[in-house]
Model the fold of this input.
Amino acid sequence: NTKAGKFNLAITNFKKVLSMDSKNSVAQVGLGNIYFQKGNTDKAAEYYNKAIASNRNDVFAYTGLANIYAQKGDTDKAISYYEKAIAIDNKNAMGYFGLANIYAQKGDTDKAAEYYNKAIVLDKNPQFYFGLGSLYASQKKKNEALKIVDILKKLDKNLADNLAQQLEAQQTPGGPLNPNVAGNKPAAQPAAKAAK
Done:
C-alpha cells in the first residue's frame, strides 16, 4: 500500500459519500486535506470552500484555507481564516498554532508566544512545543528553550534533538543564529499541518 494508493482510496471513498450526500462537509474537508497533502492547493481550496458553503461553522474548512494562505505567504488572509476558525471553536489548537507560526514569521514574538501557549494548553502536540522552543531559541531565551527540550524528550525525541541543535548552533561562532554573521536568521517555524 503506497501513500498514493491510500490517497486514491480515500478520494474514492469521500467522493462516494458525496455522491450520496453532496453537502457532506466532513467528506469535503477530507478531500481538501488530501489535495493539500498532495500539493494541489487549488483543488484543496475548492473543497474547503464547498465545505463552508455546506456548513458555515466547519472549523476544519476555515483552518484548511488558512493553511493554504499561510503556505502561499498571504499572511493577512491566513490570519483572517485562522481567526474565523477560532471564533467558531475557541478550542481549535491548530488555529492557534497557525496564528503563532505566522506571528513568529512576522517577528511579533509576543503574539507568537501567546498563541503557541494557547495551542499547548489545548493539545500537547510536540509540534506546538517545538514552535515555542524555536521561538525562544530565536530570542536567545536559552533557559526557556531548554525547558522545552526537556518536555520534547518525553514527547518526540527527534524534535527535542532538533531544538537542542538550534541552541548549540547559537553557541557556535558563525552558527545559524549568531547575530554577528551577515545573513543569519532564526530557524523557520514548522508549517502548520492540515486539519484532520
Remarks:
- DSSP finds ten helices and no strands in the chain.
- Residues 175-196 have pLDDT under 50 and may be disordered.
- The first helix runs from residue 3 to 20.
- The radius of gyration is 18 Å.
